[in-house]
C-alpha cells in the first residue's frame, strides 16, 4: 500500500513509519516537521512533504500517485498545550484533520485512520468500552471528540473510516517525549534518583507502548473494511491499565533500583480504566512490550546519548512556546 502519514516526524510517527516500511509499504510523510526531519530514516520508499494539514494542496498530494490509506497523526498533542491557545488546537486537531479526511476522500483514498485518545472518556466510574458515554474534559480531548464525530460521518462503502482511541503512549522514540507519564518518571528517576508522581497516585490510566500502538495501526490497515469501517477501537491491552503509584514501582523494577517518591501537582481527576477487548477480537492484537521493558530502554537510551533528557524538544509545551517566541507561526 502507499500510506500517507501526517505528523510522521512526531513521537508516534517516527516509530510507525519505519514499521510500515519494514512491512513493504510506501510512505508519504506529511508534516510541518516542528521537531525536525532527522527523526525519520533514509529510505527509497519514503517521501517527505513539508506541509500543513490546514493548507496542503490537492495537487501536492496527487503528484505522489494513488494513495491507498491515510493515518492522520498530525496534531498539537498535549493537554497543557491545548489550554495555551484553544483555537489553535481546534484549528489543527479538529478542523485540519477533517479537512485532510475530506481531501483524501475526494482523491479516492480507500481508508482513513484517525488517531484519537482514550482521554476523551475523562473521569468515569468503572471500566469504559467504545460504547460508553464520553466525558472530554480538556480542549485537547474535546477537539479529538469533535474530529471523531465529523470523520465517522464521512464513511461510506468506498471510504473506510476507523477511529482509534489510544491509551497514553510510552517508550523510547526518536522524537522523544518526556511529558508522558512513564517516560517522565524514568527521566526523573535517572536524573534525581526519585520518581515524580502526580497526586494522589491512585488514579487509573491505560497505557500502550509506542511500538504496540504502531503495530495496532498496521493490523488495522490489513483488516477487512467490513470489520473496521465506521468503527471505534480502544488501542491498548486490558493488562496495561495501571494506578499511577503502581507504575512507579514497575519503572523501578525495570531499571533494577529502589526508588523514592517525589509528589507533584494537584490531585489529577482524569481517572479511567479502559476495556480493549474489541481490538483483540477483531485484529488478534496483543501487546508485545511492557512498562518494565520501556523503563530500561529509556534509561539506556539516556545513558547511551540516544536521547538527551534536557532537550527542550522533549517537553512538547515548552518547545511550542519557544517556537512561538521565536516567531514561528504554528
Ligand atoms: N502520545 C500519546 O500518548 C498519544 C495518546 C493518544 C493519542 N495521541 C495522538 O496521536 C497523534 C500523534 O501524537 P504524538 O505523541 O506523536 O505527537 P507529536 O507532537 O510528537 O507529533 C505530532 C506531529 O504533528 C506535526 N504537526 C503539528 N501540527 C501540524 C500541522 N498543522 N500540519 C502538519 N503537521 C503538523 C508536528 O510537527 C509533529 O511532528 C496525535 O493526534 C495525538 O493526539 C497520542
Total number of β-strand segments? Answer: 14
Fourth-level CATH superfamily:
NAD(P)-binding Rossmann-like Domain
Along the chain, the helix and strand elements come as EHEEHEHHEEHEEHEEHHEEHEEHHH
**What is the alpha-carbon Rg in Å?**
19 Å
Strand order within the widest beta sheet: 3-2-1-4-5-7-11
Regarding CATH, which class?
Answer: Alpha Beta
Mean pLDDT level: 96
Bound molecules: nicotinamide-adenine-dinucleotide
- Gross morphology is globular
How many individual helices?
A: 12
Major sheet attributes: 7 strands, parallel
Low confidence ranges: none
Q: What CATH architecture do you see?
A: 3-Layer(aba) Sandwich
Percentage of β-strand residues: 15-25%
CATH topology: Rossmann fold
- How many structural domains can be distinguished in the coordinates? 1
Report on this structure:
With 330 residues, the chain is α/β, with parallel strands linked by helices. The chain has one domain (2-325): NAD(P)-binding Rossmann-like Domain (Rossmann fold). It contains 12 helices and 14 strands. A 7-stranded parallel beta sheet has the order 3-2-1-4-5-7-11, with helices on both faces. Strand 1 (2-6), helix 1 and strand 2 (26-31) form a beta-alpha-beta unit. Helix 1 packs across helix 7 and helix 9 (244-255) crosses helix 11 (291-303). Residues 6-7, 9-13, 31-35, 52-54, 73-75, 77, 92, 96, 115, 117, 166, 168-169, 175, 177, 180, 316 line the site of nicotinamide-adenine-dinucleotide (NAD). Residues 6-7, 9-13, 31-35, 52-54, 73-75, 77, 92, 96, 115, 117, 166, 168-169, 175, 177, 180, 316 line the site of nicotinamide-adenine-dinucleotide.
